[in-house]
Amino acid sequence: MAANANGGRQSGFTLIEVMIVTAIVGIISMIVLPEIRGYQARAKVSEAMLLITNCRNIIHEVYLSGEALPAADEWGCEAERPSKYVERIRTSDYGIVRLTLSADIGDGRLAIHDITLAPLSRTGAVMGDADLGSAIRRWRCGSPADGTDVLPNLLPSTCRGS
Q1: CATH no. of 41-154
Q2: Could you tell me the pTM of the whole model?
Q3: CA atoms within 13 A on the CB side of 16
């Protein structure tokens, strides 16, 4: 028989060493998993937000044309179930876009919640009849003042109420 290279002692990990490694892995996963869920949520919201690009263009053209503003939900970009993650897209009288996320998004923090996109004038106010014939200065995305009820940390960085 061959002699044991360790002088007769068994090699391997002790129970204490295995428990320490398990604890370290558990602590690391507790720190990392919430961040991963946050990234997943923001990715799904970003995908859903791509659908309102068409609305931005239409609303901008209407304001520039100087013609009368359409009634709510008659801007031409509204939709029901346009994608897996979006329940509906609606518009207000002044062109504030409201995107409602669907339950299929698979996250209770986002399902059936709204994200808004509002056109702003050069004064920083929501555009209205007085702004006909002028360009939209910027867009305010994700503001609770416009009806967004998604937590800011779940919105894309470009859509956090500014």
Answers
A1: 3.30.700.10
A2: 0.76
A3: 0
